[in-house]
């Protein structure tokens, strides 16, 4: 296969690119480094089937010669500190960026894959969230630049499907962690790891009773690849199903890195969801997919990456999962 | 004042342009006639202070020489049959169109006014809807092209306000009717009037127990003008406060035009809201605004327009409202 991937220098994009390259496919990566990292591009360049164009996909996609099988749109700031620093760019990559990618797919006769997000559910009033839940999103708040951009991107993807018959996929990615995250990602996983490695207090927002359900990045990549192999156009949740309170998560990170560091409580961020957890019934039944990497194992590998600045050696694939094992 | 108004050939845009022109202001109208009507432009051209540019605001706004006091973004298909026929264009005028208008306002040092919609509330679970209600919107349904475009437009407007300090206004317009509506608008007011004038059965969707709260267009124009005179950046609802069931509304239209026509029940449209009614506390307290034209009076004037194909003579302004009386 030959794929064009926007956001190839991002956390998830770089894992996805590596997965395809190691599977013998050709990847054209595009990134403007607004939140992506040049180091990921440099590592991917070691694969002869990888090429890269530095470009802002909101302003236009590169003129690619030859056929494409997939256009995969993974470009966007994704952590609250990043998208709140660049709200206009975040809105644009959801609208103009998505449409440019859809137009390229249409022009090339390629399939289209949209990386959407659990943030389309906002601060949900239904738990866990099935794909049929319409969400609870503040259209004007400080997070709206991301939430509304992704809801718009889904609506535009469905409009291209309805009007032009484009073969589309939409996933809603829940909290994902792993090696290759930016150290300054600004979300809780890297915050806690950074703080514990530096011997500083772990800052827990609010009373720490809000929960998250984390998935390790290789599980997400496996789900993405499986969805590419089926024909299904409605959104599909991909995320971890074991909720953990932020206070308990702080305990896990401390015990893994430095049990001596204290916990410090700080105010809750604006519009921060109290709880978010996917209903993965669709992914289970449609893809035979469920998360496989435990939080302990995933965190061990993530902490090793942040200690060493490089990826730890991959463990052997679990039995029966060899075909869909992710690249990291 | 000198204003640039997108959607000047639309139902509401043409009333707004006429209001400003009759108040001695200069209006530059922009429309691509996707849903606007050239006849409105021809009528507005009778004012020497009106100029018009036929352009698609999603692709770019005209290069206007000289200063502007306001950029007012009213361009968009607004009735379900129209925006479902043009979902991609509807999404674009909410994103690229809004951003082009914001950029023009920023470049000119002008204020910016966004026409948003009650559809940002979707099929609401809270009644009546205050501006603080986050809404209940299907991001993937057949109406999502309009609902999500307008939510995105609000988010982009707030992003320009936060990042560039733009002086912005946002209104959420609830069902509005009056002369100048397209005969093929496709929503209930013109549907019923057309059917009754033609001696055909009035088609009531579902069981007819879903409600709407209609406002006459001159009330809306009065609210818009008042909001321009205050400094307030959060969204403001403008709409009628008297809910009426669709079955009862059919009775009113029949009694006004042709009591002999029957009612025929047809299936409910997809994602059609069961009930929608504004909480206008903000408009009341901030603007001293409330609807003034009764449904009977407004319908009489609307029916006269559809019978004659021209605007009926305006009634005398109500006492105390002379300063803010709309143009029609």
From TrEMBL, chains A, B:
<feature type="domain" description="NAD-dependent epimerase/dehydratase">
    <location>
        <begin position="4"/>
        <end position="230"/>
    </location>
</feature>
<dbReference type="InterPro" id="IPR001509">
    <property type="entry name" value="Epimerase_deHydtase"/>
</dbReference>
<protein>
    <submittedName>
        <fullName>UDP-glucuronic acid decarboxylase family protein</fullName>
        <ecNumber>4.1.1.35</ecNumber>
    </submittedName>
</protein>
<dbReference type="Pfam" id="PF01370">
    <property type="entry name" value="Epimerase"/>
</dbReference>
<keyword id="KW-0210">Decarboxylase</keyword>
<dbReference type="InterPro" id="IPR044516">
    <property type="entry name" value="UXS-like"/>
</dbReference>
<dbReference type="InterPro" id="IPR036291">
    <property type="entry name" value="NAD(P)-bd_dom_sf"/>
</dbReference>
<keyword id="KW-0456">Lyase</keyword>
<keyword id="KW-0520">NAD</keyword>
<dbReference type="GO" id="GO:0048040">
    <property type="term" value="F:UDP-glucuronate decarboxylase activity"/>
</dbReference>
């Amino acid at each position: 296969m030959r794929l064009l991937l926007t956001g190839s220098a991002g956390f998830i994009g770089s894992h996805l690119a590596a997965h395809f390259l190691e599977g013998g496919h050709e990847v054209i990566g595009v990134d403007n480094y607004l939140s992506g990292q040049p180091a990921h591009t440099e590592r991917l360049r070691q694969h002869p089937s990888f090429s890269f164009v530095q470009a802002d996909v909101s302003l236009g996609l590169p003129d690619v010669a030859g056929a494409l099988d997939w256009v995969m749109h993974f470009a966007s700031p994704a952590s609250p500190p990043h998208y709140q620093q660049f709200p206009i760019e975040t809105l644009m990559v959801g609208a103009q960026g998505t449409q440019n990618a859809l137009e390229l797919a249409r022009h090339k006769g390629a399939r289209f894959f949209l990386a959407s997000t659990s943030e389309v559910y906002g601060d949900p009033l239904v738990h866990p969230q099935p794909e049929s839940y319409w969400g609870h999103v503040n259209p004007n708040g400080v997070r709206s630049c991301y939430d509304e951009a992704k809801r718009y991107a889904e609506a535009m993807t469905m409009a291209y499907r309805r009007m032009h018959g484009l073969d589309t996929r939409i996933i809603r990615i829940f909290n994902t962690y792993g090696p290759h995250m930016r150290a300054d990602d600004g979300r809780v996983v890297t915050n806690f790891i950074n703080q514990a490695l530096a011997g500083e207090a772990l800052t827990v927002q609010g009373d720490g009773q809000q929960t998250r359900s984390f998935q390790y990045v290789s599980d997400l990549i496996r789900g993405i690849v499986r969805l590419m192999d089926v024909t299904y156009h409605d959104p599909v949740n991909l995320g971890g199903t074991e909720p953990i309170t932020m206070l308990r998560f702080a305990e896990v990170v401390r015990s893994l890195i430095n049990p001596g560091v204290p916990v410090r409580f700080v105010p809750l961020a604006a519009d921060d969801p109290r709880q978010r957890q996917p209903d993965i019934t669709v992914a289970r039944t449609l893809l035979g997919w469920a998360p496989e990497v435990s939080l302990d194992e995933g965190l061990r590998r993530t902490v090793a990456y942040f200690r060493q600045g490089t990826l730890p050696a991959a463990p052997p694939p679990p039995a029966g999962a060899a075909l869909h094992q992710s690249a990291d």
